[in-house]
Amino acid sequence: MAQVAAKHGHGDHAHDHDHGHHDPQELKILGFWFFLISDVILFSVLFATFIVLRDNTAGGPVLSELIKMPGVIAETFILLTSSFTSGLAVLAMNQGKVKQLISWLAVTAVLGASFIALEVTEFIELIHEGFSYTTSAASGAFFTLVGTHGLHVSLGLIWMIGLMLQLKKRGITDVTRGKVNVISLYWHFLDVVWIFLLSVVYLMGVM
């Protein structure tokens, strides 16, 4: 009986230990969700600031007069396409196709880099037109909001390149699978933020 009780006690201890154990991947994903929520709050504040300050031009150039919609439409098309290719990367991963996974991530990264190149070109042209960060409250709010989104895309590109190198070295594992899911979710989030940017900053600005 003593031996049975001892075994039973040991089993209870092991059971309690299992309940106290947390999957590292689940904790990382939870941490990412907290990061994403904080980003939602950040962009909400930046959007609100831009809406309040967009007419405070201090006698300087007005954004609506400087916006070149063909470039903005090109940026939108590129970013939406990159969101689609990141989804194809996840699909390839779920099918266990490492080479296709890396290829689609590479395509996504190239599209993201193209988006950044167009955005930098837009910023340079606006500055040449006299609409710089320090021109007015409206210009400062614009560059802060759009620039913060561009910074997030740039960080996502660095993250994606590092992940491709890791996939090439280790293949599809539980760790890399979790990272691919997270980067895809992050990229879709940036896509949603850009849709709001397109609507609030550019389309409303033109109207």
- The count of β-strands is 0
How large, in whole angstroms, is the Cα Rg?
Answer: 23 Å
Which H/E pattern describes the elements? HHHHHHH
* Oligomer kind: single chain
The outline comes out as elongated
Q: Unreliable segments (pLDDT under 50, ≥5 consecutive)?
A: 4-19
Task: Describe this protein's structure.
The chain is mainly α. It contains 7 helices and no strands. The protein is elongated, with a radius of gyration of 23 Å.
Question: Can you give keywords for this protein?
Answer:
207 residues, mainly alpha
Outline the secondary-structure elements.
Elements lengths: L1 H19 L3 H30 L9 H4 L2 H26 L3 H31 L8 H34 L3 H33 L1
Helix pairs in contact: 2-6, 2-7, 4-5, 4-7, 5-6, 6-7
Q: Summary?
A:
This protein is mostly helical and 207 residues long. It is built from seven helices and no strands. α6 runs antiparallel to α7.
